[in-house]
């Protein structure tokens, strides 16, 4: 119980940090998202490789999990969500970030493209740049046809939702629906929109991946905090139950001893 | 013209770098150096390494703006900076080393593959050194 309580405290502190970080990075991603939305809304009929499927059924999945266990269903939920979204072992390449996901997916027969589990201990923006560069290269070379990001979204301390997000090709129709207002202001592009996309899409992906890292870290600690809280409660319950049983057994043996002594004494008389 | 101010927001991945009112702002884009007053035509452009100058009522603020992109609207401007630093955050020694490294790489003629990257690194280092002094 001491241990679970201590672990809960540790993850509470870590959660505070992670939460703060997640909040300070939010403006960037919101901005990035709305800008990309408005750009794509304006350039709807272009056939840019980042927007059109290249026909390869292989899917690259960047799976973000934790390196340490004891976080309740945190890691398992991500993997379950992947299966629920129809990402089967045969046609997936896994870019594993987080040892737990790497091990679990390896056991399930997924092909591991790369394992970069150290990132999640202390995710940096430059890590996100590297990851997005690597997966983009695979995409541009035609090695994979789609890129997904599997991570856990941090709603609040008690609720973390596993999420599988399609990064490439960008689902233009979905973005357009959200960008209708933005499209009304006529925007000029320097350089031209198509060229701008070449620059912006990788940045967009990097920011999404980085956002995934940050949210996943917050979620991991939230999940662990909860798991440890539950463990503490369970331990308390168990201790109460066991000490009751122990006292009963002790009483029993004393009563029995007493009756034996009394019986023995009366037999001698 | 400069009495009209507009909202300036510079957002980096880890933090909101700057937020305030300015009358005029200068930075570098892939198409060249630009200066923007209020009521500019809405524009989106890509940042090239350069010095960002924000002309506020009280004075001019400078920062090293190295990559990202910018969205200009009539009454506001938002810079999504992947990498941006105030002068006192710049590590001059590191920048100097980076500059020398990039120059060496550029002088070697055989490896033309990383030419763009080295050139970009050199530009970044020069901008940093310019401000660090």
Task: Give the overall shape of chain B.
Answer: elongated
* CATH class category name of the largest domain in chain B: Mainly Beta
What is the CATH superfamily label of the largest domain in chain B?
F0F1 ATP synthase delta/epsilon subunit, N-terminal
Helical content of chain B stands at 25-40%
| Low-confidence spans of chain B | none
Q: What is the CATH T-level topology of chain A?
A: Pyruvate Kinase, Chain: A, domain 1
Cα distance, first to last residue of chain B? 32 Å
CATH class identity of chain A = Alpha Beta
- Rg of chain B, Å, rounded: 16 Å
CATH architecture of chain A: 3-Layer(aba) Sandwich
Radius of gyration of chain A: 27 Å
What is the third-level CATH name, the topology of the largest domain in chain B? ATP Synthase, domain 1
Folded structure, characterized:
The complex is a heterodimer of chains A (269) and B (133). With 269 residues, chain A is α/β, with parallel strands linked by helices. Chain A has a single domain (2-228), classed as ATP synthase, F1 complex, gamma subunit (Pyruvate Kinase, Chain: A, domain 1). Chain A has helices at residues 2-42, 74-84, 99-107, 125-140, 172-178, 180-184, 193-268; strands at residues 59-64, 92-97, 111-115, 146-156, 159-168, 188-190. In chain A, strand 2 (92-97), helix 3 and strand 3 (111-115) form a beta-alpha-beta unit. In chain A, helix 1 (2-42) crosses helix 5 (172-178) and helix 4 packs across helix 7. The longest helix of chain A is centred in the last third of the chain and has 76 residues, at 193-268. The model of chain A has no long low-confidence stretch (mean pLDDT 79). In chain B, 32% of the residues are buried. The model of chain B has no long low-confidence stretch (mean pLDDT 83). Chain B is an alpha+beta fold. Chain B has helices at 92-107, 115-132, and strands at 6-11, 16-22, 24-29, 32-37, 43-46, 50-55, 60-72, 76-85. In chain B, strands 1, 2, 3, 4, 5, 6, 7 and 8 form an eight-stranded mixed β-sheet that branches. Chain B has two domains: 6-87, ATP Synthase, domain 1 (Sandwich), CATH 2.60.15; 90-132, ATP synthase delta/epsilon subunit, C-terminal domain (Single alpha-helices involved in coiled-coils or other helix-helix interfaces), CATH 1.20.5. Classes of the chains: A alpha/beta (269), B alpha+beta (133). Chains A and B meet through helix 1, strand 6 and helix 7 of A and strand 5, strand 7 and strand 8 of B. Strand 6 (188-190) of chain A pairs parallel with strand 5 (43-46) of chain B.
